[in-house]
Amino acid sequence: MPQAPNGYARPSVDQVEEPGTTTGTTPSTVADTPVPARRPPAGSAPDRPAVSTRRDAFFDNAKFLAIVLVAVAHAWEPVMAGSRATKALYLLVYAFHMPAFIVISGYFSRRFTAAPGQLRRLLTTIVVPYVVFEVAYSLFKRYADDSPGHPISLLDPWYLTWFLAALFIWRLTTPLWLTLRHPLAVALVVAALASLTPSIGEDLGLQRVLQFAPYFVVGLCLRPEHFQLVRRREVRLLALPVLAGAAAFAYWAATHMRTAWLYHDNSAQELDSPGWVGPVMTFALFGCSLLLTAAFLSWVPGRRTWFTALGAGTICGYLLHGFVIKGAVYAGLFDDHAWPTTPLGRVVVTVAAAVAVTALCTAPVRRLLRPVTEPEMKWAFRRTG
């Protein structure tokens, strides 16, 4: 993406959808907040709302820190066996990293009305990357893992691509959610019912779509003042005992709870539990995840930092880091060597994952991937207006 002196030249796939614009957000989940622009001179024609495209450092920082946690948690999966502490950290991070992404995605989807321009952006910045990376990951699995029978199916998202399919569905249903009197209550009921319905199947990752939907709806219901509230000093101080308590609980849960509950991709019956446990876990995890998301956001810097500009490239970090981690797994790095499962080895794996995803969020990678993550595709659409 062409760089301006401040690192941003034009609205990217990560930018907010503002009134009167046709931009959209991607699974990197959004980056900009509306910054009031100067009012037009008196007597001038108010063509459209005056909105600055200046990015809000808080949301760029939150996106970058969240994508680092995503990559680190994925890197812990092959090395956490035998380490209760590592599994506890894994459970703690998994409880809020995707909910945080989804809440922010919902917040920046409030302006989605399915206008022609918005639909074009939806197709080019979500559907196109989904198709490309679903095929790419499937081929990678087939040949790098010596799994010739692994299918290539656009209806069955594999590994990371489920979020693209889910965001597409959530975004399309945004006008419906916003017409409801109590959208969050409805979303929670739908999620609870999904958790006890094994017949939903795996098409487009619908279990995750339905079970994670409440977080998206929470984002739709939020306003700027809510984010200001969570960033107050007293909230930051309260976040410390919350995180400490959550870490202690995660340490206990590491030997008592199945991690699959945090993936939200199975019903209770598929996890060998009675059906009624599904709704109970849905509500319990929802409350826990929102609390941890608020604690996480309270400590996100609101000022520009060295990693603020990297927040615009989280779509690349998200979509590419899976190749790095799965590549290491397929290469036998964790099976053929004992050192990654030592305490020092786990630290090295953690740092390596954080450094790798940071590099994948940089401007050169974004420019290289732009034809896939934000293609213009003018040839595919009718001219409007």
From TrEMBL:
Ranges of residues in domain Acyltransferase: 57-361
Record keywords, A-Z: Membrane, Transmembrane, Transmembrane helix
A Pfam family matched in the record: Acyl_transf_3
Disordered: region residues: 1-50
GO terms for MF: acyltransferase activity, transferring groups other than amino-acyl groups
Bias type Low complexity, positions: 19-29
InterPro entries registered for this protein in UniProt: Acyl_transf_3_dom, Nod_factor_acetyltransferase
Protein name per UniProt: Acyltransferase 3 domain-containing protein
